[in-house]
């Protein structure tokens, strides 16, 4: 099979490697779509020589192509369409039993990091990491839900977004765009904040009522003006930027709920003025459980959400080096690789 590898230094190579063989409790998974995520760039941008030697990519969607020993063919049949939950834990602790394997009490591995990833024609994965993909949902949409889009859905569930509420989304990259689309489908009024005009335009096409360019002035003041002086009911930060995080919190009205989704960095808040005296609730939300991504897939199917709107580029596996070059330059919103055509 062919698979994409990086050894850092902003280089990427597609190589021919032996087909993987599933072991006990594993399946051979044919990858039909593999989303590109900002986390992929960490290894790509790392110093030369720092590669793991494993195929990268962690947003897999595809079909079961073969079963290893001990896999129940009635529960995981060959040909089953599925999203792969890209983590595996000990399998026995309370977090693993609840489907939160990335919170395993013992240790966990991430596919595309400590185990071979999805920018490849095939993967070998535990059968219990697979979540059924409804027939009416595309493989590319499933790949989006395998990480960024599923992360957005989980964050909105944490916020308990209700119809008629205003949701302020800071950062209109793939996660923020998906949050915009889902929040709009939940009946919320969405205000998006991002300095990139193309992303603001995409957000408006995906359901944002209005967007704000932070370069035009104080984003917090703009949010309060747009909400008639009440502030947003909910806020989601998908930037990981300290200033944007602070602004998200300060744009919330009394009893507001905020969620930090963007990875890394920090934030400085005045606990009394920013939190206590407005009765603010803050969440941290990191990806989702197997049940969470299954709920997301069902929601997309039930409500006819066009998740594929988040993609601006589609690539063949052999074009992955160019795909990463453009992704690294932040061209477009989200891209997806089709490893098997």
> How much β-strand is present in the residues?
15-25%
Overall number of structural domains = 2
CATH superfamily of the largest domain: Medium-chain alcohol dehydrogenases, catalytic domain
CATH fold naming of the largest domain: Quinone Oxidoreductase, Chain A, domain 1
Percentage of residues in helical conformation: 25-40%
The biggest beta sheet is recorded as: 7 strands, mixed
How many helices? The count is 11
On the 0 to 100 scale, the average pLDDT is 97
CATH architecture assignment of the largest domain: Alpha-Beta Complex
* Structural category: alpha/beta
The low-confidence parts are: none
- SSE ordering: EEEHEEEHEEEHHEHEHEHEHEHEHEHE
* 3D shape: globular
Describe this structure in words.
- It is a single chain.
- By secondary structure, the protein is of the alpha/beta class.
- It contains eleven helices and 17 strands.
- It has two domains: 2-147 and 288-338, Medium-chain alcohol dehydrogenases, catalytic domain (Quinone Oxidoreductase, Chain A, domain 1, Alpha-Beta Complex), CATH 3.90.180.10; 149-284, Rossmann fold (3-Layer(aba) Sandwich), CATH 3.40.50.720.
- It has helices spanning 40-45, 94-97, 139-145, 148-159, 174-185, 197-205, 219-226, 242-250, 271-275, 290-303, 320-328, and strands at residues 2-5, 13-16, 26-35, 60-67, 81-84, 87-88, 109-110, 122-126, 130-132, 166-170, 189-193, 210-212, 232-237, 252-260, 281-284, 311-316, 334-338.
- Strands 3, 4, 5, 8, 9, 16 and 17 form a seven-stranded mixed β-sheet that branches.
- It is globular.
- The mean pLDDT is 97.
